[in-house]
Every structure is written in C-alpha cells, then in structure tokens.
Amino acid sequence: MKTLLTLLLLIATSLTAPARAAELVMADYQRPDGAITTYFNGDSIDPYFASKALLAAQDAGMTTRTAAIRWIGWLLARQHADGRFDRYCVKGQRFVSCQEADADDALMAVWMELLVRAAPPKGMPPAWQASFDKASRHLDTLRAPASGVYLISAKLPVALLMDNVEVSSAFKAVGDYHRRRGDAAGAAGWMRKAEQLDKDILRVFWRPNLGYLVSTQPRTESEFYPDAVAQIFPILADIRPASRPHAAAYALWMKENRMVWLQMSEADFPWGLVALVADKMGDKEAIACWRMRSIQFRHGTHWNVLEEALYLAFASRLTAEQVVAPPPAGMRCR
C-alpha cells in the first residue's frame, strides 16, 4: 500500500509541476568551440550581440546556461587587460580580432550581467570573477561625473539612453546575484548604484510630454531605431518617470508604432527587442504577430543572433502545429 501511495504521489506531482524551460540551442550560430557568430553560419563575431542574445532568451523564458558557459569560455581568454573586448572575423580558418567594439559601455554591461546570471550557485569561478572585475573597472572609467551617465567609450564621449539602460540592468542583476548568495551588503551597494543611475538617466534623457532623448549628442533626424525603439526600451530595466506608468507608455507606443514595427523585417532588422518588451507587458498578440511576420526572413541578411534567440524562445512555448499555424482570426498583424 505504501508503495502504491508513493507512486500515486509521484504521478500527481509530475502532472502539476511546471514544465521545464526549453534549453537554448543555436546550432547554426554557436560553433563547436563555443563561439557565437552574429549571423547564420557567419564569419564574424560581435560579443555584444552574442551576450545580449543569451540574456534576451533567458528573459523570454529559455534556459541558456549550457550555451552561456560555452560562450563565456570562448570569450574569456580574449578579454583585454583593461576589460575591453574586440569584434572578430575569420582569417585563416580561425577568428581573430578585426575591429574595436561598437560601444564599450553596453558591452561591459551585458558581459557583467551574463557572468552573474550564468554563475553556478556557489558563485562565479575565479576566472569569471577576474573578468567581471576588469569589465566593472573599465565601465567605471566611462562614467561622466557631471551627469552620472555612462559614455560609449573613451574615444566616443557621448551618452546613449539605451546603453545606460543596459548598465542599469547589469547593476540590478549584480545586486540580485549578491542577494542570492546571502551578501546583503553587496546587494545593497549595487542596488544603490542602479537607483542612482536610474535617477541620472531620467534627469539626462527624459523630457516631460516629449519622451526620451536617445543621445546626449543632438540629432536632426528621427528613425525607427534608435528614436522609436528607445521610447519603450527603459521598460526592460523597470525605469520610468513617476508620471508615466509602463502600461500607458507601452499602449501609446503600440498605437503609434505597431504597424511600422511589424513591417520592419521587410526592409530592416525585425527588432525582436520590441517583442521582448511586449512579452514583459504580457502582449501575447504582438509576440505572435512578430513571430509570424518575421519567420520568412529568418536567417536572412536582416536577421542576427539576437532575433534568432528571441524567435526560438517564443517558439519554444508553442506546439509544433502552432509554430506554423496562421495567426487566429481577428488578430491585428497588418
């Protein structure tokens, strides 16, 4: 009788337990050595896009630990002594440094966040901690004392809204990492840094009734990226002015930009990061529309590893039939 009761309990537990998150596998982007190319079977690597793709897929509900550990192992040895990374291209059947990073502040931030989010329960291995410390020190050198926000790089002393949002996100992730490890003082210190940066971001970039500036450098044109995307990007790091609730900001953005966004994949990148904001806001219809309209452009010239990671994350929630099914009647995808 005891054995039968035990068996019934196990069956009941298996029926009620939440489904395990799917494991991210990007076979056509992540090479056997762990390197992650920017494009489908590509010959270039941008550490920002690879790291951001892993973070985004995790935010969208996928398990990324295996892919992240392999990627971290590949990139770790390529970090400069001052914390920076380069971009890499194929030369003689191997990847070599061929360009400086596009934005040191954003890259340091996503790398720091990736390390703490992929760390095992006992904490970052010594090599990871050393890499984190180098990245953190370099990021500190990019903070503008007068404004409190972070600059693109030593060579480009301009502050970007979206980069600073990513720095804030990293600080919060590091704070959470210390909290998980029982280090209350360490967690509080990083959270204070995040809170102060959020205040500085709003002071520097937010304009009441007009929205966010995207850069401290004046812009004369307005484009979908960065101008439109930047208006809802702070939602991902829970940054908002007191007078602008996330729900209201998101609803207004979708009212003004939804059709343009869903058509972007035809001429530009599909901007899956907007779909990630939609996911945070619980907008399943927007995600479904993005996935259905983007699928025909998958792996093309306007599709990179970030779009791929998000596509796989959203598709992993569906059955095989749902992945290829047309959107339900009444769904506004055009």
What's the average pLDDT?
A: 91
- Helicity level: 40-55%
**How far is the first residue's CA from the last residue's CA?**
60 Å
Q: Report the biggest beta sheet as strand number plus sense, adding barrel if it closes.
A: 3 strands, antiparallel
Number of alpha- plus pi-helical segments: 13
Structural class label: mainly alpha
**Beta-strand fraction estimate:** 5-15%
Order of strands, widest sheet: 1-2-3
Q: Summarize the helix and strand pattern as letters.
A: HEHHEEHHHHEEHHHHHH
Instruction: Give the overall shape, derived from the CA principal axes.
Output: globular
Tell me the total number of β-strands.
Answer: 5
Structural Rg: 21 Å
Q: Return residue spans where pLDDT drops below 50 for at least 5 consecutive residues.
A: 1-18
Explain what the structure shows.
This protein has 334 residues and is mainly alpha-helical. It has a domain at 245-334. The chain contains 13 helices and five strands. Strands 1-2-3 form a three-stranded antiparallel β-sheet. It has a two-stranded antiparallel sheet with strand order 4-5. Helix 10 (272-280) packs parallel to helix 12 (305-315). The chain is globular and about 50 Å long. The termini are far apart. Residues 1-18 have low confidence and may be disordered.
